[in-house]
Structures are given as C-alpha cells and as structure tokens.
Design the sequence.
C-alpha cells in the first residue's frame, strides 16, 4: 500500500521519461546515497571499507562496462580484465610521467587509452559475432597480458613487472585512510553509473539494443554498424579501464598484469549473468553477490568448525557459482534485477492479487 503511484501525475515528456518516475523510488535512492556517503564511512570498519566495499564498487563499474557491450549491444566479450589491465597500467604511466595531472584526469585518460585498445580489438565484430567474437576478445585477454609483461616500459622497467601506485592526492590532501578512498571510489562509480543509465536510455542506447535484437533489421532502418558497434566497444573498454585504474590505485596499490587474468574476466561475466544482462542495477547486484558469497561461505564454514576445510569451501564456492549461472540462464535469464522488478510490481498491487 505504501508503494503506489496513485495520484502521481505526469504533466510532460520529461516527467514520463524520468529515471525514477515514482516518488518512492526517488526517496529510496536519495536515502541510499545519503547512507552510502554520510553514514557508511563513519560506521564501517577499515576491513569492510578497504576489503569489501571498495572492490564491490570497482567490480560494479567493470560489470557496467561489460553489460553495456554484452547486455545492451549484444557483443559477447571475454576480455574485460585485459581492458582493466590497460587502464591500470595507463593510469600508472600518466601519474609517473605526467605528475602535474590531477588524479581524476589520470583515471579518465586511462579510460580513453583502454577505449582505443577496445576499438582495435572490436574491429572483428564487424565480420563475426557470437562465440567467434568471444574467441577474438579472448585473444585480446592473452595478448594484452603478454604485452604488459613482456615490455618493461609499461611497468617502468620493473624487474618483477609489478607497478606501485604513487601517493594519492586530491585537492592538496593525501588519501591514506580507507574511508577517504571509499568516498572517492563511491563518487566516481556513482557518476559513471548515472552516465551509463542515461546513455542506454538515449538514441545510441536504442541503437545498441536494435543491433542486439536483430542486426540486419537495424542496418536496414539506417543504423550504422561500424559506428555503433565500435562505440559500444569503446564505451565498455573505457568503463573497464577506469575500473582497472581504481583497482590499482585505490584498492590494491600494487599490482601486476597477472592480477587481471582470464579468471577476472569470467568473474565479471558471472556478475552480469547473475545480476541481470542488460541492466545497470543488475551490475551492482551481481557484483555484490560475487563479493559477499565467499564471506558468507566462510561464516558457514566457521559454524562447522574444523570439519569443513578451506579447500572444500573454495570448491563449494565454484559449485554454487556454476549452479546459479545454470539456474539463471534457464529459469530467469534477466537475473536478480528481474526478480527485484517483479517484487516491485507485486508491491504496487499489494494487497490485491491483480
């Protein structure tokens, strides 16, 4: 009874096309952001901020990037982690060789470099699609990882190939605490999530979905395949590149190319499958599930004491991931986001059955 739109009238196209057309959704989002910005940094512990919330936000950003390419444009990719690696190493080199640039500018330029690389590896999408395109992006995963390890210039000729993020300065202040790094990460992810939400609702977003549903029909009605597909690869790689820069600078601090291996790409793919393909909200839900599931399994393992070994719990984690992916692909292909949408539709009618 509290989640109703009765009496909320739309007097124009802008109100009808709003991201949150129902007042209750606007209030809920405002409360959520207020809690995330004003309450969590002062309540959460260093462990929760630095080891759970920051990677959750960064992986959500990477999942949004893959969701734009796979969920909205219909182009299957297995190289998301490679573009994260490009962003991480690009941000490191910008910070090292151009120290006068602000940190946020380094992150944006790192995303631009990743977008350029994404366009290069997106060229095969003009001729192939489906699993053949997935193999082409898989080649990007191996080639980029090899290149970043093979050529020492990218890691400033480090003997181990490891890069270490410099001091993180914002407005003359050094960000050393987990809460400050969390707030910066949250601000960047919130801005890019809003941009992605508006992008997929725009003309280019509708062109992506037209190509996803039927590329031949989309080309017949005048959508340019070259421009639209490469733009999807560029935007997706840009988001993954920024996520990689945040992963290196604000989360780990010290990384190498192997931190962005194929397992990371599959992890991001699992996020959008479980969270919801073609949904910005699903990217956050999938990332939350992937990050929190190991913690939940550790708690369950602790209840059994020493009878459940760590390797057994790790195997259970992989089995649960696989079972959930099969479940969502068969029962609910749109993932957790669709379940949340169904719940909202039920609340709009409750307590009436229809």
Sequence:
């Amino acid at each position: 009874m509290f989640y109703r739109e009765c009496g909320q009238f739309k007097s124009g196209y802008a109100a009808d096309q709003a991201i949150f057309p129902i007042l209750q959704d606007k209030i809920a989002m405002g409360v959520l952001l207020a809690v995330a910005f004003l309450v969590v940094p002062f309540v959460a512990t260093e462990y929760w901020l630095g080891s759970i919330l920051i990677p959750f936000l960064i992986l959500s950003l990477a999942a949004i990037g893959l969701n734009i390419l796979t969920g909205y444009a219909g182009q299957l990719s297995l190289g998301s982690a490679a573009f994260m690696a490009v962003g991480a190493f690009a941000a490191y080199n910008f910070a090292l060789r151009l120290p006068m640039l602000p940190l946020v500018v380094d992150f944006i330029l790192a995303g631009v470099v990743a977008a350029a690389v994404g366009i290069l590896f997106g060229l095969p999408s003009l001729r192939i699609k489906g699993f053949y395109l997935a193999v082409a992006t898989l080649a990007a995963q191996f080639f980029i990882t090899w290149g970043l390890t093979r050529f020492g210039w990218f890691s400033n000729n480090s003997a181990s190939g490891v890069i270490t993020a410099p001091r993180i300065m914002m407005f003359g202040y050094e960000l050393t605490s987990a809460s400050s790094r969390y707030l910066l990460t949250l601000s960047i992810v919130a801005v890019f999530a809003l941009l992605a939400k508006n992008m997929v609702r725009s003309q280019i977003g509708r062109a992506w979905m037209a190509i996803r549903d039927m590329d031949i029909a989309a080309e017949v009605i005048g959508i340019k395949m070259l421009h639209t597909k490469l733009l999807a690869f560029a935007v997706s790689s840009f988001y993954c590149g920024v996520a990689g820069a945040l992963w290196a600078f604000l989360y780990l601090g010290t990384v190498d190319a192997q931190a962005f291996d194929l397992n990371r790409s599959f992890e991001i793919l699992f996020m959008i499958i479980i969270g919801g393909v073609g949904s910005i909200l699903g990217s956050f839900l999938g990332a939350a599930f992937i990050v929190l599931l190991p913690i939940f399994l550790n708690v369950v393992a602790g209840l059994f004491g020493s009878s459940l070994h760590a390797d057994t719990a790790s195997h259970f984690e992989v089995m649960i991931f696989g079972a959930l992916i099969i479940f969502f692909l068969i029962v609910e292909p749109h993932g957790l986001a669709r379940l949340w949408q169904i719940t909202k539709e039920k609340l709009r009618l409750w307590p009436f059955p229809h």
The mean pLDDT is 87.
